[in-house]
């Protein structure tokens, strides 16, 4: 006997225990699986191989997989039980696991087996002639038969229902045919499964569908063993020669090879199993079967082969099963943890949402502090909120300086620049009048009505002096050497007419960034899609109101700056105004001379008309005030509309979803958002079952 046969029974017993606990659902277990057509002679083969009297044709054992185990023990007995399918409900599982029958001889089994199978069929709920009230034709439940005795050698074979092409009216349907095919493929797909392909000799092997199934999962044929049955039906010498060529590896070779066996036929009685088997296998002493090796013919040779083969694959796989089981246990634990705690009661639901809100606020704080090392979520640049807002604000400040005014101010001097000097004072810049939003307005349809739809840009025009002169002529009174107070207000309103459009464009970009961040951060802390959708739905109305609040604050600031009387306490206004006046005089007398006569300065001033002098005065005052007001406005837009209303203020949308928001939810709203869906409940139950099974598997493996 091989070394594997001396060492494997202990391991094989453990593997059977794993299979009985449905560990094959999670791990590939070493196993021998017999597959074939319904007419392949599979039932007769297994009866001769195991000594179990399998019913034939359309009877019970063909409705579900059957696991037959031989195990050496001091007491002779045959035990019959049921292994519930992996998806069996708890109540059904408990009922099946409680079933057990025990007989003490083959004769007793022969006498009681039909009644035992009928009881099994009733418990499983399968429909047969003796149980017409069954609701299933086939089932995932497994019939387990264990034969023990002092003369038994360890062997486990799994028999699955035979595949069929033609349905039987009132018995099977095309849906049943497809179900059996899926069942067969599921059993043979694992890499540690040896496929026992049962092939009748009287059918061309090239047409055998079961070999096509085997090739799908074992294209190299390394774990497929062909078992040729019904050689006694071959009459022509050429047909027998084809079978011999298969066994000798001359046709369609398989790594594990082919065996040819002669089983008891359906109309043959087996009064003396051993003598009858010997009589049937005498045919292999005749030509052409004598050309085959003895270890490739007959039930006994096949049984020895299967015992050694099972021992080999068990010894090879066993050391890896421990590590694979622990790894699978860790995976299931992590998946269960990802579902969060159970959420069946209101308190559990509240605790869950509070935890989600706390995690969300942690991300918010880190995002506002640019502390991107605290959470792996910030690997996504879309969640680096404050960085995106600062970049947007810088772009806004530059664009506002270059484009916000209606007319370019007149260039007075390129040498002596006033305080707060800007590029528009120097020359007209090349500004692209086309503009884009830099984001997809259709991405968040909820923001429609808040975000601006006007994304065109403005290029300041030349001709500020004619415009000021015309405005003065339309508004002048009887003032002597000066102008009316309303002229400057009107001029500033006209010069700042684009402020609101640019401010709302800026706020739209910030609101888009904040909204994108909120939805992204919620997705990082809330893994279940249904809860995420309900949570966003519950927050949306208040979020939109707070976004609108930021936009309204920006519009309010525009109104204060552009539609109120110009006013400032900033001393830079006076300094800029005085410098502009001085620069105008210096520019007029700039002849390249080192000395300027006082009479020349006097003539520059005195030779101006009142209208020209007033227009220049309005220009210089407007320019000095505009610079101060523009910088004040840009600062206020950021501090009040962006930072206070949208980022860190008490009404910021970022702090809406917090623990207090959760605590204020009604019971109905809480249940709507945080209750577990049926799919989650079922998945949680499945994972808990898997953890129990895998924990038991670790105990079994030791």
TrEMBL record:
Domain GED: 615-702
CDD domains hit by this protein: DLP_1 (cd08771)
Domain of life: Eukaryota
Annotated GO CC locations: membrane; microtubule; mitochondrion
Gene Ontology biological-process entries: endocytosis; intracellular distribution of mitochondria; mitochondrial fission; peroxisome fission
Xref: Pfam families: Dynamin_M, Dynamin_N
Domain Dynamin-type G, residue spans: 26-319
SUPFAM superfamilies reported for this sequence: P-loop containing nucleoside triphosphate hydrolases
InterPro entries assigned to the protein according to its UniProt record, in alphabetical order: Dynamin (IPR022812), Dynamin_GTPase (IPR001401), Dynamin_N (IPR045063), Dynamin_stalk (IPR000375), G_DYNAMIN_dom (IPR030381), GED_dom (IPR020850), P-loop_NTPase (IPR027417)
Keyword GTP-binding carried by entry: yes
Keywords: GTP-binding, Nucleotide-binding
An example Gene Ontology molecular-function term: GTPase activity
Name of protein: Interferon-induced GTP-binding protein Mx
Organism: Fusarium oxysporum f. sp. cubense (strain race 1)
